[in-house]
Amino acid sequence: MKVLVSSKVYNRILISLFGFFIWTSAAYADSTFTNLTDPEQIRTFHNVTERIRCICIPSITIKSCSFNNCTVSAKLKLFIENRIRAGESADVIVDKMIHGFGQDVVSDPVIAKFIENGNQGMAQGVIMGFGPDILAKPDSFWIDFSIAAAATLGILLIYLYLKRRTAPKAAIVTGSENHSSFDKYISEIKEKQK
């Protein structure tokens, strides 16, 4: 048994699926990886990483920063995990990120690695504090605007592609009708000339 679906229904199904996948990807886009397993520690981790900005891309939170593209923020996330395992609360960690953790954190493996690799600026930032600039205050207008513009452009391109794909069929039909009427006109002229 064959099921025939009109092109309009097929296009609507495709657009609906596309919209669903965009919606679900947006819903999960804000998550970040953590090695923590305790649900309370994971909540604390998400709370802290929502409030601290990314070092490489200041317009986003460290929670949204990719492990692959930003190694400094990835290591800072590991440092935050270590602080949570040590029993510090989200407010304490954020406050210490602003005002500094002190010389005691030099023994933390992440900070020791910063120092070993010559990244003194990051190590000093954690030890002495980054100041209030470390807090996430992203201007989401441009991010939201660019996402909306990209989505609109994508939908427009899909619409134009589908419209163009169905347009040649209509042009062929009207072209053959025009050709037959032209032939009829020519034949009438020839008859009158005889």
Comma- or semicolon-separated keywords:
single chain; mainly alpha; 7 helices; 194 residues
Walk me through the structure.
It is a single chain. The chain has 7 helices and no strands. With 194 residues, it is mainly alpha-helical. It has a domain of 130 residues. Helix 2 packs across helix 3, helix 4 packs across helix 6 and helix 5 runs antiparallel to helix 6. It is elongated, with a radius of gyration of 31 Å. It holds the Pfam family CcmH.
Can you give me a brief rundown of this structure?
The protein has 194 residues and is an all-alpha fold.
Number of distinct helices: 7
Arithmetic mean pLDDT: 81
Question: In angstroms, what is the radius of gyration?
Answer: 31 Å
- Alpha carbon gap, first and last residue: 59 Å
The total beta strand count reads 0
What class would the helix/strand composition place it in? mainly alpha
Major pleated sheet? none
Coarse morphology: elongated
Strand content bin: under 5%
Helix-strand sequence? HHHHHHH
List the helices and strands and how they pair.
Elements (H helix, E strand, L loop, with lengths): L6 H22 L10 H13 L19 H15 L4 H10 L9 H8 L3 H9 L11 H54 L1
